[in-house]
Amino acid sequence: MNWFDKLLDWFSGYTDKWETNGVKFTIYTTIAVLCGGIFELIPPFFLSKTAEPIANVKPYTALEIAGRDVYQREGCNNCHTQVIRPFKWEVDRFDPQKSFGRDGYSKAGEFVYDHPFLWGSKRTGPDLAHESQIQASAEWHKTHLINPRDTAQGSVMPAYPWLFEESAKLDPSKIAAHMRGLRSVGVPYTDAEIEAGAAELAGKTEGDALIAYLLKLGRDSAELAKSLK
Amino acid sequence: MMNSQKYNDRIVKGFLISALVWGVASMLIGTWIAFQMVFPELNFGPYFTFGRLRPLHTNAAIFGFALSIIFATAYHTVQRLCRVRIWSDRLANIHFVLYNLTIVLAAITLPLGMNQSKEYAELEWPLDLLIVVWFVIFLVNYFGTIFTREEKQLYAAIWFYIASFVTIPILFIVNNLAVPVGLTKSYSLFAGVYDANIQWWYGHNAVAFVLTTPFLGLMYYYLPKHIKQPIYSHRLSIIHFWSLIFIYIWAGPHHLLYSPLPDWLQTTGMVFSIMLWMPSWGGMLNGFLTLTQAKEKIKTDATLKMLLVGITFYGMSTFEGPLLSIRSVSALGHNTDWIIGHVHGGTLGWVGMMSFAVIYYLVPRVWNTNLYSERLANFHFWVATLGILLYIVSMWVSGVTEGSMWRAVDETGALKYPNWVQITEVLKPFRLFRGIAGILYVTGLFVMIYNVIKTIATAGSGWKEIDLRVGLKEGKA
Which of B69, B68, B71 is nearest to B103 (CA)? Predict the structure, then answer.
């Protein structure tokens, strides 16, 4: 261990000096901390391959955005993930119809319009990345959201009946601002789409919007896969 | 005490009390949502469902409880280690008020569903701005104290606090960059894979620079102070400090193994996570070896027991972390209750126990009285330790069961348990035990609060130090 002691002597020769100089110490600490961050955060921005948009994947419509807002507000991402790992058992479970061909796991290009990403970190309930291909019935989703026990006995999911009540009617006046905000961070909405947004929301409840969002999940890339087949 | 004139201990008292308040709030909510996972009837919509309470639990625990302890100890140690009063009493008071205002607003806005959906960064942009304001105020005050110090040498404890306080704003600001579209709603500047990368760079380092380095800092100060023996090795603290802060920040991508994140990034995260095991255990060993200098007193001193168990759980969690960041282990453990168990080993075991030890150390000193009851402190220690053990063991079993049932296939290659609820039913008993573990832990906390209230009631009656040095009689200074 002689070389290690020598290394330590050499290193503590420097640090001993830093420890008496608050400015130096703080600067060197900051540099040490920044190295990893710079290495991990900067290069991915310049590597377009890390997130090439998949041809068929389209931005969320006004109603789907409103539904995504509800999904975020209710914290659905605390229990449901939206990323399928490349394992047979995950692909089989979350792509039972093989809608995505042989490679039914999540690709970077599926998430290019997700501000923020909603992959989640805990799977208390099933993954929802391909929900449109697993449960395509809007009526089923409504029943499930009003009382999860009606479609899945033993489920521990909270019930969300109020999402479909009169008080949960969407406010169409806000959606244009939301879409403009998303455009400013890179989602390619046209002026016409933004103007048409309010009409799309008229008369709909938060529950309707949430279902529209759930039925969007995985739909575009599944259609692309089917057209390739 | 003559110290009370030289040093500002009012601010320390303030943060100790806010630690107790937010500690109870976060742990009660934690216990409640643990039972929601078994009895969905405990979700009271729309404001008190799991999805809205879980962020409240984590935010109250990390930013309410842990950060209060961090600020209490930072103000206490920086004045002693620099031998000067805090640079500005007024800035300290502003910091205290704005900080607690933020946590109150968090406790209101999170159940209302104002949530930007990034883990441990759920608060919406107006609150983020408020946080930046008081954090800058705190930083000016903290560094003002360091730069006007009368002690030349910066002691190891203060290194860890400095590293934490320069890194937290960097992480916080970058991850919270968003475009507001209303007072209560914003969209992340980043999308998809990039956003995930930045979130877990932040998320992992919230563990590093909020839940680890400040608590190592307080270990380096309060452990030697409590036992009146020097830290075991100064050179070990040098090497483990610099390697820890350098390596920790790289480990974030281990949260995204097997995701669409670029493979080179995943591998970087995994390699640095495994490397992190060494500096982490460097810190643990330095703590342990320091503690062995007073090992005869562990049987009789509750504070020392808490420090021992805290450091043990630090060692355990920092062994489990690198283990879980190995790809094949992550394949089984990711997204399961195992991760919840791992997190709570660190938070209940390391952060919680170190915090309790510090509270028992500080309360009698800053209120100048003696602890009301050592026996109650001892009871707190045992009930909390039992709670942690029950918690992590039930989550280990639950997580491994869960991961195994997800991947199980029969001889034809088809899923053995295609029905999700079938798996949920199997996990219910373990999740019930988790809730009971939470009750045990919260019970300990209530006992401590009773003890602290009774202690403060006798404030100013004179505090008598117990010397823990081996071979000395108790009470001899």
Answer: B68
B336/A123 CB distance under 8 A: yes
Do the beta carbons of residue B300 and residue B227 sit within 8 Å? Answer: no
Count CB pairs under 8 A between chains A and B. Answer: 267
CB-CB under 8 Å, A116 with B174? no
Domains in chain B, CATH or no CATH each: 9-457 (1.20.210.10)
Q: Quick check: B258 and A85 CB within 8 A?
A: yes
* Nearest residue, CB atoms, A40 vs list B253, B260, B428: B253
In this structure, the dihedral spanned by the alpha carbons of residues A65, A67, A72 and A78, taken in order and rounded to 10 degrees, is -130
CB B45 within 8 A of CB A158: yes
Residues from chain A that touch B199, judged by Cβ atoms under 8 A, are 116-117
Q: Which residues of B are documented as binding site for heme b?
A: 57, 342, 344
Among chain A residues, CA nearest to B160: A29
Per-residue pLDDT in tens (0 to 9) along chain B, 477 residues: 455 578 999 999 999 999 999 999 999 999 999 999 999 999 998 999 999 999 999 999 999 999 999 999 999 999 999 999 999 999 999 999 999 999 999 999 999 999 999 999 999 999 999 999 999 999 999 999 999 999 999 999 999 999 999 999 999 999 999 999 999 999 999 999 999 999 999 999 999 999 999 999 999 999 999 999 999 999 999 999 999 999 999 999 999 999 999 999 999 999 999 999 999 999 999 999 999 988 888 888 999 999 999 999 999 999 999 999 999 999 999 999 999 999 999 999 999 999 999 999 999 999 999 999 999 999 999 999 999 999 999 999 999 999 999 999 999 999 999 999 999 999 999 999 999 999 999 999 999 999 999 999 999 999 998 777 765 555 444
* Closest C-alpha among A93, A191, A76, A222 to residue A145: A76
| Structural domain boundaries in chain A | 3-49, 62-228
Q: Which residues of B touch A178 (CB under 8 A)?
A: 181-182, 185, 187
Give me the CATH topology for the region A62-228.
Cytochrome Bc1 Complex; Chain D, domain 2 (1.10.760)
Residues A14 and B136: their CA atoms lie apart, in Å, by: 29
Entry pTM: 0.95
